[in-house]
């Protein structure tokens, strides 16, 4: 990626974090289906073309028009298989929608859960109607209307309700090995929790139980699968990744130890210090002094 592209992406993500919402059109063979900060934002997009979507432990391949719902807590990736690809995307934070009482629709929707199917096949008539909703969102986000955020929330809710009327795609494939499948999902979900960029958004998933709850599996099943595939317990993976993030924060930020402890989900700095010593063999102050 050249410098100009890097700055453009950075500016886009900064603006998205500030506003909590962005809608835009996907044109030609654009890569804009993938250009955003995945950690913080939900995604709804309508696309026309041939693509393969990997969502949690499943893969969907489809040609035509589809409506897709992406959850930042559930790993997914997108492969564009056709030479032309077009549609619309909107990205929004949970905080943006929480300002509305209608946010319950988001939490209860089957499209944002790991056990649900987030991909809907749509007809030409449905595509035209949904396209019109996206166009209205794009128009409103650029307007001076005082209550445009409320109106955009209404459009998001309308998209969810329209999808609830549709039939999800069922022509998907899954990993043959169930342990490998759940391990792959866990490892990507673990990585998605990082980096920690602000003390205002501390680490949300801290224990094996937290990850099991997020993935809608029993913690014993998760632990057995991860240990079988990697040779290490789930808790060790979490501890090692958290310690690595702690090292990065100690070396590359001016946050004090108490701030880092809070950002990583520790109730007291002493808990964090004891954890860090146990995992790394050295104290946080040692790492901080080496970085100076």
Automatic annotation (TrEMBL):
**What domain of life?**
Bacteria
The answer to whether keyword Hydrolase applies is: no
Q: Which PROSITE patterns match?
A: HTH_ARAC_FAMILY_2
What keywords sit in the KW lines?
A: DNA-binding, Transcription, Transcription regulation
- SUPFAM superfamilies (UniProt xref): Homeodomain-like, Regulatory protein AraC
Q: What is this protein called?
A: Helix-turn-helix transcriptional regulator
Membrane-traversing stretches: none
Question: Gene3D superfamilies under this entry?
Answer: Homeodomain-like
A single Gene Ontology MF term assigned here is: sequence-specific DNA binding
Record-linked InterPro entries: Homeodomain-like_sf, HTH-like, HTH_AraC
> Which source organism does the UniProt entry give?
Panacibacter microcysteis
The chain positions of domain HTH araC/xylS-type read 180-290
Query: Is Transcription regulation included in the keywords of this UniProt record?
Result: yes
């Amino acid at each position: 990626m050249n410098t100009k592209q890097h700055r453009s992406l950075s500016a886009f993500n900064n603006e998205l974090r500030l506003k909590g919402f962005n809608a835009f059109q996907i044109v030609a063979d654009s890569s804009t289906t993938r250009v955003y900060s995945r950690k913080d934002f939900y995604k709804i997009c309508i696309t026309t073309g041939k693509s393969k979507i990997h969502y949690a432990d499943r893969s969907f391949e489809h040609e035509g028009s589809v409506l897709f719902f992406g959850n930042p807590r559930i790993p997914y990736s997108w492969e564009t298989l056709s030479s032309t690809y077009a549609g619309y995307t909107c990205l929004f934070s949970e905080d943006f929608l929480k300002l509305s009482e209608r946010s319950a629709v988001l939490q209860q929707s089957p499209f944002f859960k790991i056990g649900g199917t987030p991909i809907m096949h749509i007809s030409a008539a449905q595509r035209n109607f949904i396209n019109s909703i996206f166009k209205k969102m794009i128009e409103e986000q650029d307007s001076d209307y005082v209550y445009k955020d409320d109106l955009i929330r209404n459009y998001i809710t309308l998209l969810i309700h329209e999808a609830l009327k549709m039939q999800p795609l069922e022509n998907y494939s899954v990993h043959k090995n169930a342990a490998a499948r759940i391990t792959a999902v866990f490892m990507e979900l673990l990585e998605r929790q990082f980096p920690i960029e602000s003390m205002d958004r501390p680490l949300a998933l801290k224990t094996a139980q937290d990850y099991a709850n997020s993935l809608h599996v029993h913690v014993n099943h998760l632990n057995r699968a991860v240990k079988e595939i990697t040779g290490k317990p789930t808790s060790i993976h979490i501890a090692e990744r958290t310690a690595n993030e702690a090292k990065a924060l100690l070396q590359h930020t001016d946050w004090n130890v108490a701030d880092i402890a809070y950002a990583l989900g520790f109730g007291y700095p002493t808990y964090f210090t004891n954890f860090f010593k146990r995992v790394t063999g050295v104290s946080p102050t040692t790492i901080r002094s080496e970085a100076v």
